[in-house]
Amino acid sequence: MNNPFFKNIEKKTGVNMDDVLKLANSLQSANFQDEKTIRGVIQQVSQLANKKVPKELEDKIVKSIIKDGKSMDFNTISEMINKKK
């Protein structure tokens, strides 16, 4: 990715934009009623954010998405992971 905008984001965040775009593409066709799929996405986002997600928080995110009907996108998961509760 040679776009200066993305290079600047990578420099500031330390997050590889190619990885972010790959994850975003995988979200488009994922089944978000499948617990295993959701847990996999949570783990990918936590790796990108370089932030460990405790089992209890992962369980809450999965429940929120499957049972409460929360939308599933990179932003939603990232916000949930970064919440301090």
TrEMBL record:
Task: Show the Pfam families listed in the entry.
Answer: SpoVIF (PF14069)
Q: What InterPro entries does this protein map onto?
A: SpoVIF
Its name, as the record gives it, is Sporulation protein
The organism's taxonomic lineage, starting at the top: Bacteria, Bacillati, Bacillota, Bacilli, Bacillales
